[in-house]
Q: What sequence folds into this?
């Protein structure tokens, strides 16, 4: 069914102006009616562009539509599809329906998403501790590392951070994990004082 979906559909430019055509094409890619896996979505993109020249008006129109369709944060698996679409169809051909500003935004999104694709190696994080020494996730030989972003002036943080410290004290060795905490503040003294007050040991 998927392989033969466009066999009787002449994807030529005038069809761009017919709403029923868009509904038919959108249904092909729609997450609720098709397989959600990245592999299947990429196969469908390639199949669509075998029937439709990416440089044609309708090819360009749906290139913009597909980029928007797969640029989402609710399904991380689709990050692979978005990056594939950008690198294989947008980058070599451009898109007349996308402004230069939006093209720059797309490129930034691709760079950001490529860093966290499944199988990607995330660079080690480095930050200065309250003694002025550099701490790095590279030197944490634990099974798990919890990255904890907090703010000494955040009411929720002032409740949850001590709770995490308590859990850490009781279970860090048992579950072989370490906490790498990043304080989101420029008030160094406030940060140091809060660390001392909460007796944070990670």
A:
């Amino acid at each position: 069914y998927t392989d033969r979906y466009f066999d009787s559909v002449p994807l030529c430019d005038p069809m761009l102006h017919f709403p029923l055509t868009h509904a038919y094409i959108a249904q092909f890619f729609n997450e609720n009616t098709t397989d959600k896996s990245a592999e299947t979505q990429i196969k469908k993109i390639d199949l669509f562009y075998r029937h439709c020249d990416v440089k044609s008006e309708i090819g360009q129109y749906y290139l913009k539509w597909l980029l928007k369709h797969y640029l989402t944060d609710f399904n991380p698996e689709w990050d692979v599809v978005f990056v594939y679409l950008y690198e294989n169809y947008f980058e070599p051909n451009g898109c007349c329906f996308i402004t230069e500003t939006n093209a720059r935004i797309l490129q930034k999104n691709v760079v950001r998403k490529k860093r966290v694709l499944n199988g990607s190696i995330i660079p080690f994080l480095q930050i200065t501790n309250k003694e002025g020494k550099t701490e790095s996730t590279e030197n944490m030989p634990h099974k798990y590392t919890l990255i904890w972003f907090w703010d000494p002036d955040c009411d929720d943080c002032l409740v949850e951070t001590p709770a995490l410290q308590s859990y850490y004290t009781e279970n860090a060795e048992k579950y072989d994990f370490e906490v790498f905490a990043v304080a989101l503040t420029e008030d160094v003294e406030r940060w140091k004082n809060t660390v001392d007050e909460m007796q944070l040991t990670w």
